[in-house]
Amino acid sequence: MIEKEDSIISEEEAAQYDRQIRLWGLDAQKRLRGSRVLLVGLRGLGAEVAKNLILAGVKGLTMLDHELVTEESCRAQFLIPVNNQGQNRAQASLERAQYLNPMVEVKADTDRVETKPDEFFLQFEAVCLTGCSRDLMVRVDQLCFQHNIKLFCGDVFGYHGYMFSDLGQEHNYVEEKPKVVKPKTEESNDGPEAKKTKIDPNETTMIKKTACFCSLKLALEVDWTNEKAKSSLKHTPHFSTTQSIVFSPFVPLFVPTVLLKFRTDKGRDPHPESFEADAMLLRQIRDDVLEAMGLSSDLLPHDFVSYCFSEMAPVCAVVGGVLGQEVVKALSQRDAPHKNFFFFDGMKGSGVVDYFGPK
Amino acid sequence: MVQLVGSLRKELADSLSACRVLVVGAGGIGCELLKNLVLTGFKNIEVIDLDIIDVSNLNRQFLFQKKHVGKSKAQVAKESVLQFCPTANITAYHDSIMNPEYNVEFFRNFMLVMNALDNRAARNHVNRMCLAADIPLIESGTAGYLGQVTVIKKGLTECYECQPKPTQKTFPGCTIRNTPSEPIHCIVWAKYLFNQLFGEEDADQEVSPDTADPELSWNPADTEARATASDQDGDIKRVSTKDWARSTGYDAVKLFNKDCLSESLFKDDIQYLLTMDKLWKKRKAPLPLDWLEIQKLGKILEVTGTGLKDQQVLGVAGYSQLFSRSVETLRSMLADKGDGAELVWDKDDPPAMDFVTAAANLRMHIFSMNMKSRFDIKSMAGNIIPAIATTNAVIAGLIVLEALKILSGDVEQCRTIFLNKQPNPRKKLLVPCALDPPSANCYVCASKPEVTVKLNVHNTLVLALQDKILKEKFGMVAPDVQIEDGKGTILISSEEGETEANNSKFLSDFGIRHGSRLQVDDFLQDYTLLVNVIHCEDLEKDVEFEVVGDAPDKAPTPPSAQEDKNVANGNKDSAEPSTSSKAPAEQDDVLIVDSDEEEPSSSTMDVRMESGGHKRKLHDAETGEASAKRQRLDQPLAADEEDDDIIALD
């Protein structure tokens, strides 16, 4: 449970967090300060999320990753100093992560997330999974859902990225709205128009709201070929069937679906060093997925595969930024959360929020 | 066969390692941008920033730590980046980009320039330098949860100045001096008062009651009578506040023990205002403070509670004590500095901030407004724009993606991208929009730029032309002005000292009149502007000049008219660093920063909105609630609306 610590914010915190307290308020900052977060995976996206949460001022961040630093990771991640090859990734990231904000308790955990018992997760208010297999994400999400822990997932595949959130059955939050006050108007008959007395236009009011989320399992169990999906394609009368596919709501799910399947099949993500073989497998999976989605395979560029390799740093920054802010919103219970997916296409610069799951 | 280096095709990866890029600014966007650039594979990066690190930067400028406070941002950023990428070739400049050293030749060294700035003046300048050097420029900005990235390429796209951007809001002198109705008026008054007492004197920053208030003037006989009366009153009313303070010799006894200053400002002046009874027919009249009575109320309530100390709102007694204390502190600071010294107001200087907090609040109380906390007043007085790491992270990511398009030769793929707080009706959180072509009558990038300026040739000083019009308004750094009078008379020379004698003369002294033309050159920016002069004798009060064709910058534009979303181009019009001890007297016209940016109120417009009228209606640029109400969407939009959204049709 997030406990709003009623202690005073120190002078140090007030000075350091000044610019963000002015944005989301002291209350939100206190809630952040009472939250512990688990972050799984310290590749490019993980490092961005770690940075964003540490800077935001959470109580604690545990970075969990069993993988070792490779030569490639040096290029991909800004928390790991050079010459740390062979070290554990979380461990290697620890020092620079802690330097980002000494007021946050940053820890490194080198275990495999699959080996962690259920109780392990219960110490956190939020869990963020990156680089995990689909099955693992579904399993951890079930657990979090039961215990009212906010769950986030995200991945970056080349130019593409996505994030998913499950904030539970009922996520309560507030929105701050300006108070609308009408200025007093009075008739002015003589002389130049008198100025009107205005009430302070900066007063605001907090409105309570609730959002409901579904599990990852349900979100991914989308029936591509159901009537509703088909009917949404028919709402673009000016275009032929093939062109209308571009407006299908499922298009953004396409790349994550293919890449997560690859990850499950190969136990890793596509790697530039095995480009040829990986590209072939990707195209194969692409064909299968497109068929299952009822989409034609010649709609996507043949070389889409070459834009899915590795993690592009700027795409990690964008997805990590959005994901980081969603975690902040959820923990601080302030502002409407994005429900429930965010998709980013780095080629086009478009970022969309969409909901997949039972209505 | 495609060869990849990481995520990138080999050809692109190779060109990244070879090219040189310039990053202007090493703050919120700058830190994120430098990190993205090196991780993406850029090898040769130059970064410039005139500022030093402040503790309030640390919540987002992640390349800096507490131990770096006070050091050069550019320098520390470079060192931090080298920690995780020692092979990067980074040159750091602790300098202003407006320094003439960074001339067109300098800019021509780079394949690409990326701005990570927080003020309009520098953006204008870099815009011109990149046009002159014909180098692509990626421009960006953030404020709170909102952000924007765009690409500027000479001849292909709009330049930064193609769309006129309103300058910061100003308030008429009589509102500040006589009839404040909002806290911001009182805060501006308090800052003026600071300068009158301790800082650089400015005739435009008078704080005493204004007998020339237009509201009073419809009966000329009255005004004259009043003017005479004030002459007879002598002392406080006639003499400027600064002179009065000086005349007392800042005598601590006079100012402090006898509470002369406070009595004068918060009682006597208010009583004087009350005699101008026309002002109070439709308004609630101000209530003078009985200074001595307030003093008797005793100690300020102890600060309690779990909030920030600064967020407390004290009572009148508290603020009166704060006022007295801060005056005394500032007085002795000034005395310590010696003869002829001046203090410069700085939001991060505690007594200066205390002074404004106290003075503004006392005035608010007098004018029946709810008093505000130091925290809130600091926001308004200091033009603080709230900022977080994540917004900057997203924008900096988008900047690099645009950079890659440019370097791949795909500049037609470039877009302006807006970051919203909430998705728009078409579910877009990030909204790409096509770039606009250059504006035909842009006063910067058109082939022969020209403007028309209305002013009074008889009372506009040459110095005002140089500073307020050419530098401040038209963004020049070192203008040279020639009169097109057949003789090529040189009015202003950018060479120091050459035309100094002209500064205190009026334009008419040089034969400039209605219809005159001035040729203005800024050789650093490689920019020539033709200025047409229209002589005008009835400009509004407090208005020194008007640029024909500009949207008026006084009235706040109603939200419904503003559908595009250019993000704040910074909270400053000038280019001084936020931490410099030479920070300029902040613009009198302060921005109200409203922490909620979803629903545009007239105050947040000032922060977010730039152009007076963007050409295209950018449906996609509408945010959250406001736009959702306009377009209730249960089904996809009709096809012709989709046409506006170029991306979907790619």
TrEMBL record, chain A:
Chain segments annotated as coiled-coil in the UniProt record: none
| GO biological process, any | protein sumoylation
The record's annotation in Gene3D superfamilies points to:
NAD(P)-binding Rossmann-like Domain
Q: Would you tell me the Gene Ontology cellular component terms? A: cytoplasm; SUMO activating enzyme complex
- InterPro entries for this protein: ThiF/MoeB/HesA (IPR045886), ThiF_NAD_FAD-bd (IPR000594), Ubiquitin-activating_enz (IPR035985), UBQ/SUMO-activ_enz_E1-like (IPR000011)
The protein's name: SUMO-activating enzyme subunit 1
Q: Which family does it belong to?
A: Belongs to the ubiquitin-activating E1 family.
Pfam families (UniProt xref) = ThiF
Which source organism does the UniProt entry give?
A: Oncorhynchus kisutch
Q: What is its main location?
A: nucleus
Name its cellular compartments.
Nucleus
What are this entry's molecular-function GO terms? SUMO activating enzyme activity
* Metabolic or biological pathway: Protein modification; protein sumoylation
Assembly and partners?
Heterodimer of SAE1 and UBA2/SAE2. The heterodimer corresponds to the two domains that are encoded on a single polypeptide chain in ubiquitin-activating enzyme E1. Interacts with UBE2I.
> Gene that codes for this?
LOC109909015
Keywords, alphabetical = Ligase, Nucleus, Ubl conjugation pathway
In this protein, which residues make up the domain named THIF-type NAD/FAD binding fold?
Answer: 17-350
Q: Where is this region: Disordered?
A: 179-198
UniProtKB/TrEMBL annotation, chain B:
**Residue location of crosslink Glycyl lysine isopeptide (Lys-Gly) (interchain with G-Cter in SUMO1):** 165, 237, 421
- The signal peptide annotation in the UniProt record is none
Recorded GO molecular functions are: ATP binding; metal ion binding; SUMO activating enzyme activity; transferase activity
Instruction: Quote the record's binding site residues for Zn(2+).
Output: 159, 162, 442, 445
- Gene (name only): LOC109889255
Q: What is its EC number?
A: 2.3.2.-
Binding of ATP: at which residues?
A: 25-30, 49, 57-60, 73, 96-97, 118-123
Major location category of this protein: nucleus
Instruction: Provide the active-site residues from the annotation.
Output: 174 (glycyl thioester intermediate)
How is this protein named in the record?
Answer: SUMO-activating enzyme subunit 2
Q: Where is this cross-link: Glycyl lysine isopeptide (Lys-Gly) (interchain with G-Cter in SUMO)?
A: 191, 258, 629
Q: Which organism is it from?
A: Oncorhynchus kisutch
Is Zinc tagged as a keyword?
yes
Domain Ubiquitin/SUMO-activating enzyme ubiquitin-like span(s) in chain numbering: 453-540
Q: Where is the THIF-type NAD/FAD binding fold domain?
A: 8-422
Compositional bias (Basic and acidic residues) spans?
607-633
Note down the stretches annotated as region Disordered. Answer: 204-234, 549-650
Q: Which GO terms describe its biological process?
A: protein sumoylation
